[in-house]
Amino acid sequence: MAASPSTARAINDRFALRLLQDEGPLTATQLKTLTGLSRPTVADLVERLQGSGLVHVVGESGAERRGPNAKLYGLVADRAHLAALDVRTRSVSVTVADLLGATLAEASVRVGDDSDTGPAVEKAVALLERTVKEAGADRLHSVTVGAPGLVDPATGELRDSSGLPAWHRRLVGDLQERLPAHVLVENETNLAAVAELREGAARDRDDFVLLWLGQGVGAAVVLGGRLRRGASGGAGEIGFLPVPGTSGLPSATGCDGGFHELACAAAVESLAAAHGLAASEALAGAGPATGAALDSGHAAFLDPLARRLAIGAAAVVSVLDPGCVVLAGETGHQGGAALAARVEAELAALSPLRTQVRATALGDAAVLRGALLLARDAAQDALFGAPTAGL
Fold first, then answer.
1. CA–CA gap between residue 148 and residue 163 (Å, rounded)
2. Could you tell me the CA-to-CA distances from 259 to 22, 245, 247 in Å, in that order?
3. Do residues 78 and 99 touch, judged by C-beta distance below 8 A?
4. How far is CA 214 from the centre of its chain?
5. Are residues 239 and 332 in the same domain?
6. What is the pTM for the complete model shown?
7. Residue 33: CB atoms within 10 Å
């Protein structure tokens, strides 16, 4: 059955807006070529989008030609403002951007272990308000909060998790109550995977698993270009993977005895100390960008670390066969190409399934960038009038 005229217009508008988002400013002729629509249809489309305040003339094209130049049309970047928050155990980072995702202002603040959650929440909210003001934004349209812990897929709420500060959940609730914006919350590891999929180490992959290696240990699963959260939002809780030879078995309330015991930041620090190194020094010596040749001391630390990480990676690979694993978080970022190459070699010895292992391309910025991408999607869905395909 053919689409109604109004539905066809909505589809065409969304397609054109997506092209302007992805390609930048375009002329009417370029829009006609890329959309395959007729010239009168494109003319109507451009007039309609200008009238809605979503598109405006940003310049001219073809100055080298004789005769009148073609107008360049682009999205109205300040039609909506977005915010992304990366909420860690003892800190909050904020980025404010326009509808195109361009950063306008950013800031961070340390948050202490206050027994009363009120001061921690107020400090985080004040940081957001200051950053919004610095960005020159009148109001926010969409906000995404990235936090450790499980997000209930049914309610979109951050669930209680042992070991996480109570102010995390209070902050999300307060933002939803106090802001006139659309507030989303997502697990930090999932957000890092979103960023790596669209702009980072997994841009050429439809299937991959991201291993988050920091104070906590987790994974994000992307299959068919889509993030897979699981029935309870817990897909990728690899820290609870039982590992023989550790202190015992993990439980519903703790991951002692699980993969977390081998790969968390404290475990990495302990392993480095056993080799007479500080963890930051040992990982930084790996050369995040190049994986250059290492001295014997650093190699002696990285080799057993790679064997540990390969245990968790092999369990995921044997079930999902993603073809690619991205090492993220503090350990993945600092270990870089040298650590990734060693994990890939160890994994090849453990599994017959060919799997590339890559270091994060976005490093510490991955969570904030993923949060900003989801906030942009939410704003564009609301303003453009159709859902975004994908995550």
1. 10
2. 40, 11, 11
3. yes
4. 15
5. yes
6. 0.88
7. 12
- What mean pLDDT comes out for the span 161-169? 72
Helix (H) or strand (E) segment spanning residue 358: strand 356-359
Q: Are 166 and 117 in contact (CB under 8 A)?
A: yes
Pair (169, 213) in one structural domain = no
Residue of 224, 231, 229, 238 lying closest to 190 (CA atoms): 229
pLDDT for 291: 44
Angle at CA of residue 153, ends 149 and 156, nearest 5°: 75
Distance CA 33, CA 21 (A): 16
Question: Which one-letter amino acid corresponds to residue 218?
Answer: G
Question: pLDDT tens, 185-221?
Answer: 999 999 999 999 999 999 999 999 999 999 999 999 9
Q: What is the CATH number of the domain that holds 297?
A: 3.30.420.40
State phi, psi for 60 to the nearest 5 degrees: -130, 155
Average pLDDT on 248-253 reads 87
Amino acid at 208: F
Pull the structure tokens for residue 68.
Answer: 């009148």
